[in-house]
Amino acid sequence: QLHLVESGGGLVQAGDSLRLSCEVSGRAVAYYFMGWFRQAPGKEREFVAAISWDIRRTHYADSVKGRFTISRDDAKNSVYLQMNDLKPVDTATYYCAGTISRELPKEYDYWGQGTQVTVSS
Description:
Number of strands: 11
Radius of gyration: 13 Å
Helix content: under 10%
Mean pLDDT: 96
Structural class: mainly beta
Shape: globular
Largest sheet: 7 strands, mixed
Number of helices: 0
Order of helices and strands: EEEEEEEEEEE
Oligomer: single chain
């Protein structure tokens, strides 16, 4: 059982950067494929980025490639999302998720409560 807590959201201007953190407890994050998702008001939740359990593979949505970077620090049992050059369309609640999988998961078993990111123009 994983317990995920996101932090680092806030209100920023277009072009600014934010770093989201996901603190994991319950089990070692090293066993899990970890991902970030987001959901804007009135829209469905969408995939943002994911990182494999062995840290060898990362995956990104086309909309964030080149701007966002996912990373993990297994010693701190945490996952991060560095977001650069933020745009108003990035405004959403961002969720951390985890599951045991050797390949990019289609579903995740564990979810955090989310952290709000608001980007003003």
